[in-house]
Design brief:
The complex is a heterodimer of chains A (247) and B (320). Chain A has 247 residues and is of the alpha/beta class. Chain A is built from ten helices and nine strands. Chain A is globular. By secondary structure, chain B is mainly alpha-helical. Chain B folds into two domains: 208 residues, ABC transporter involved in vitamin B12 uptake, BtuC (Orthogonal Bundle), CATH 1.10.3470; 38 residues. Chain B contains 14 helices and no strands. Chain B is elongated. Classes of the chains: A alpha/beta (247), B mainly alpha (320). Chains A and B meet through helix 4 of A and helix 7, helix 8 and helix 12 of B.
Chain lengths: 247, 320
Amino acid sequence: MQAPDAKAIQVTDLTVAYRETPVLWDIDLDVPPGVLLAIVGPNGAGKTTLIKAILGLVRPAAGNILIYNKPYDAQRRIVGYVPQRGSVDWDFPTSVLDVVMMGRYGALGWIKRPGKQERELAMNALERVGMEKYTNRQISQLSGGQQQRVFLARALVQDATVYLMDEPFQGVDATTERAIVTLLQELRENGKTVVVVHHDLQTVTDYFDWVTLLNIRRIASGPVDETFTPENLRETYGGRIAFMKNR
Amino acid sequence: MEHFYFLTRFDYTLMIVTSGAALLGTVSGALGTYAVLRRQSLLGDVISHAALPGIAIAFLLTGSKTPLLLVLGAAIAGWLGALIILSIVRLTRIKYDSAFGLVLSTFFGFGMVLLSLIQRSGNANQAGLDDFIFGQAATILKRDVLTIGILGGIALIIMLIFWKELKLLIFDEGFAASIGLPIRALDILLTSLLVIAIVIGLQAVGAVLMSAMLVAPAVAARQWTDRLNLMVLLAACFGALAGVSGTIISSPIRIPTGPTIILCATAMVGISIAFAPNRGLLWNSIKQRRNRRSLKIATGRLIGATAVKNRMKENDTRRS
């Protein structure tokens, strides 16, 4: 359906500023289709802002963003989003199934209520993340890892081509981390493009095949084995990185 | 015969006032749920205080006390107050709480000045306008009940139409924006619904106390349920119950109705926080005690087990 050489995500000259301080400066980024990409960088590097800019949630001061050659507004239906777990109030009075069905709201359109079909899709997604036993659980009674899986299930029912995920590994246990990685790789195998804000440098080479190093500017971006080098990391983190020496 | 006539007269008035209080309690309870879940309880306070100058200006312009006109003036002023707060926060570095304080007192002060000017003007028709400050349920007439019913009904229908959109807006605004929901428009819609819920209650409950009618039923309802639809329904019932019981209690002993309604609503909050299952204080203390007991038994077993193990170890070392 798309031109064969189309980039899944193409960011050109993107600058975002909060008041006068630039958070992202002149970013160029090409994400080819079908990669599992980690966005890596120190705190305050603008990783979350980059994701939000791609989703049109923050207004850039300058620059252009295309998803498969079209602006985001025209491509909403093929983009799935997993926000940071801490961005919502988990004491909100709702159930696991209900949150997952929210992933269908975009396709449903105004006024229409989720019905049997949405319920089935949601159950399906919950099974894929191993949460089918928690369907009717109030969301405040979930552990951090379970909350993260619910958010992933919600993105799965969006049935997207491009996924943007903000720290899906934050505060999850080892079992959940494994399960999430397997799921992400499964998505890539199915030809989806998955962009993940990631914090743990140790696991980048194991989990991902592409990486973008970010610190307000884009330091480097490309296949992990070419891009994830000590020099690039030093430039990203400013020499504060000792453990990479023996690589 | 005359006596009998008086009784039916009295019952008729009480019935009108009670049904008005019940209606406004239903509407403010249901819509207050959204304010509470969005942590915007204070916004209700600002809107109700900011509505006062609107009532005064509506009267000054038209010289009439038609409920719909006064409510319209109140709504415009209340809405303007809310809008100014949103703009202050967006455009300056002033934080929400300061913006709330500024707008609330400025509008309310302005309203008081206008009301005292109207009172001094000697317009015979002005009597009763100051009831909007503390509320005067006894002055509710049939046409007021009609206004409350129609406006409140419209607000509730709009709430039901945009049910899932409003739910997503409150639960996860970022995700809502990512799927293309117009966040700012929905925000304005929700604020407008709150404005309606508040202005229809001003006459009975008053500008000073009205925000409690939004917050109290919702807080009480939250204690009993973990589902949004049940919470809205329960809050509506609690609001109606507070309206009815407040009116019936206050009427024979001649205490002001508005404050009595609010006291009834807060009594429900107290009861709910104390006794509701899962979230209630009583429930929690029982659960805690049970946990502590089972923990004691478990640690007791553990200590016993370690003692046995140690003794076996001792035996082992002695043997070797």
